[in-house]
Amino acid sequence: MEVVIAPRDELARLAADAVERLLVARPDAVLGLATGSSPLAVYDELARRHAQEGLSFARARAFLLDEYVGLAADHPQRYRTVIDTELVSRVDLAPDAVHAPDGLAADLPAACAAYEEAIRAAGGVDLQLLGIGTDGHVAFNEPGSSLASRTRIKTLTRQTRQDNARFFDGDVDAVPTHCLTQGLATIMAARHLVLIATGRGKAQAVHQLVEGPVSALWPATVLQLHPHVTVLVDDAAAGRLQLAGHYRETYAGKPAWQHL
Ligand code: GLP
Q1: Which own/partner pairs from 171-178 qualify as long-range (CB within 8 Å, at least 24 positions apart)?
Q2: For the segment 57-115, what is each residue's pLDDT rounded down to a tens digit?
Q3: Where is the Glucosamine/galactosamine-6-phosphate isomerase domain (predicted)?
């Protein structure tokens, strides 16, 4: 696990660099896209590179991490809509190459199984962008999630619904109670995981993710078992890292050819 502590704009550039390097090497790469506020600066930077530097997503494919259950197709907070707004509509990614779990399916377990199969048929995810919840969830794998889980329906915790109420005019009751989410094992199958966390509110979750014991209580800790994880954090989110000094020193001395 590589931990990079840097200012927010630098974090977005580093994540965008990783995406760009992948797309240049493999134009038909499979991207794993995250919602929430953490990756927004990355999408801004990717959109800028597309407009100004010709970075192309024309042959890329993408899978979202998760989706709310029951939000109408035209709801602005439906994750598929959010990704269309924040990234797809701003680059040349083909809308039909972007997939999300179907939170409106009549048969939700079947939709989850179909999603797993679609990821598998695409050859798996090459680079997965991730955020982290204040309670240590990744995607919507809330505390208590099986570390071996696959895409399935989950109940959101009150904490997550409160955290996400800001996207629903502050109304926690408007936040759906259920979601479909890639499981922890699904996420762990991606070849490179790039997690971004900023702000003091994430400090405890980041400490657990990087330095805590692997436990379903802090689902993100399963990432410690992945061979290629990049954790991008600002000073505030790094505030509780015990070995922060070591991570800074390691990154400062890293040869440029090594990349993330
Ligand atoms: C949501 C999403 C996660 C995201 C997390 C943190 O619940 N399902 O994918 O990582 O919240 O969100 P934010 O980046 O807005 O803090």
Answers
A1: 176/68, 176/69, 176/70, 176/71, 177/69, 178/68, 178/69, 178/70, 178/153, 178/154
A2: 999 999 999 999 999 999 999 999 999 999 999 999 999 999 999 999 999 999 999 99
A3: 10-224
Instruction: Please tell me the predicted confidence (pLDDT) of residue 235.
Output: 98
Take residue 41 and report the two structure tokens written for it: 């600066």
Element containing residue 61 per DSSP (H, E)? strand 61-64
Residue type for position 39: P
Other Cβ atoms closer than 10 A to 255: 6
* Pairing outcome for strands 152-155 and 178-181: antiparallel
CB 222 within 8 A of CB 141: no
**Residue 202 vs residues 81, 124, 132, 242: alpha-carbon distances, Å:** 26, 29, 8, 15
Phi-psi region of 7 (alpha: psi -120 to 50; beta: other; left: phi over 0): beta
Query: What are residue 2's DSSP bridge partners?
Result: 230
Nearest CA to ligand 1 atom 10: 131
| Per-residue burial over 168-178, b = 16 or more CB atoms within 10 Å of its CB, e = otherwise | beeeeeebbee
In angstroms, the first-to-last Cα distance of the chain is 10
What is the tens place of the pLDDT at every residue in 109-130?
Answer: 999 999 999 999 999 999 999 9
| pLDDT, position 69 | 98
* Residue 32 pLDDT: 98
Q: Is 34 in the pocket of ligand 1 (CB under 6 A)?
A: yes
CA–CA separation, 159 and 166 (whole Å) = 12
Give the Cβ contact number of residue 118 at 10 Å.
14
Q: CATH assignment of 2-258? A: 3.40.50.1360
The residue to mutate among 140, 142, 158, 182, having the most atoms of ligand 1 within 8 angstroms of its beta carbon, is 140
